[in-house]
Write a structure and sequence with these properties.
This protein has nine helices and nine strands. By secondary structure, the chain is an alpha/beta fold. The chain folds into two domains: 163 residues, Rossmann fold, CATH 3.40.50; 104 residues, K homology (KH) domain (GMP Synthetase, Chain A, domain 3, 2-Layer Sandwich). The strands form two sheets. The protein has a six-stranded mixed beta sheet, sandwiched between helices. A three-stranded mixed beta sheet has the order 7-8-9. A hairpin with a 3-residue loop joins strand 2 and strand 3. The radius of gyration is 20 Å and the shape is globular. The structure holds guanosine-5'-diphosphate, potassium ion and magnesium ion. The site of potassium ion has 6 residues, from loops. Keywords: Cell membrane, Cytoplasm, GTP-binding, Membrane, Nucleotide-binding, Ribosome biogenesis, RNA-binding, rRNA-binding. This is GTPase Era.
Length: 291
């Protein structure tokens, strides 16, 4: 049996969350075209007959500008330290030199596999050129080309990873559980994802979601959540004219939450203003961002 931790690193929008979902065949990590969507480190446990891999998605690597950012980068640092194998994910159409600088800067102590992503959006010659570029780098034990959108195959993806994983007993017994985080967390993330989808400018970055009630009833699950924003004007936009926006967020989120929980859901959303929550240690803790 092989068992170990495989952590996915990369610049914002490289496709880390999409890859994690493809690997698990389940939507665990929220995805959006906006940078800094992922704020937490999500561990996903994949248990097969001959191996157990604990994948972890991380926030993109950035320069912190406020305390929430610092918490996000702490989770990247933690992920650097407990990996057996690192996946360094690159968007094939991004600047390769820039990615190389960033990967070298990680000072990785574990074997790294460079995965060139989004090959569905580049021609074969360019993909080959990217492979050649990264194959020359010291940190790259192996370079592979993937499309997280299309999914990954055992031969190209899992086989090279397993080569670098240690032999050992599985870390998690219960082959049923696919994450170390509670359902409540994923529910709040699905609501947050809709805010990234439906609102613009600073709003998604000034927003977080707090689940206040999560109750299993006879025929459905009742969920009450607060959408926290920094300003009154943001609250107005999130509620929308005649409550149109909040209703749309609720409808889209409920559909995804029902698919995730495999249960009928009654979802109630409120919008609350908490000025400067992103820089307040106590509030960050309350909203689930690290210690
Ligand atoms: P993250 O910031 O690294 O977690 O990236 P996301 O998973 O949120 O993806 C960023 C954007 O890239 C989203 O719009 C995805 O739909 C898109 N994306 C991810 N993987 C692929 C891929 O294989 N091909 C293409 N064309 N787009 C992708
Ligand atoms: K993103
Ligand atoms: Mg992400």
């Amino acid at each position: 049996m092989k068992a170990g931790f495989v952590n996915i690193f990369g610049k914002p929008n490289a496709g880390k969350s999409t890859l994690l979902n493809a690997l698990m065949g389940e939507k665990l990590a929220i995805v959006s075209p906006k940078v800094q969507t992922t704020r937490h480190r999500i561990k996903a446990i994949l248990t097969e007959k001959d191996y157990q891999i604990i994948f972890s998605d991380t926030p993109g690597i950035i320069q912190p500008q406020y305390k929430l950012h610092e918490k996000m980068m702490q989770s990247v640092k933690n992920a650097l330290e407990d990996a057996d194998v690192a996946i360094l994910l690159v968007d094939v159409n991004d600047n390769w030199e820039e990615n190389d600088t960033l990967f070298s800067g990680l000072k990785l102590k574990v074997p790294a596999i460079v995965a060139i992503n989004k090959v569905d959006k580049a021609d074969a010659a360019k993909v080959q050129e990217a492979i050649n570029f990264f194959e020359q780098k010291d940190y790259a034990k192996k370079v592979i080309a993937i499309s997280a959108w299309k999914g990954v195959a055992y031969e190209t993806f899992f086989k090279p990873i397993l080569e670098f994983l240690p032999e050992g007993a599985p870390f998690y017994d219960d082959s049923e559980s696919i994450s170390d985080l509670p359902e409540k967390f994923f529910v709040s993330e699905l609501i947050r994802e809709k805010i990234y989808e439906l609102t613009q400018d600073e709003i998604p970055y000034h927003t977080t979601v707090l689940i206040r009630e999560f109750k299993e009833k006879l025929t459905l699950t009742k969920i009450v959540a607060d959408i926290i924003v920094q300003r009154e004007s943001q609250k107005m936009i999130l509620i929308g004219e005649k409550g149109k926006m909040i209703k749309q967020i609720g409808t889209l989120a409920r559909a995804d939450i029902e698919a995730f929980l495999d249960r009928k859901v009654f979802l109630e959303l409120f919008v609350k203003v908490r000025p400067k929550w992103r820089d307040n240690d106590m509030q960050l803790k309350e909203y689930g961002y690290g210690i």
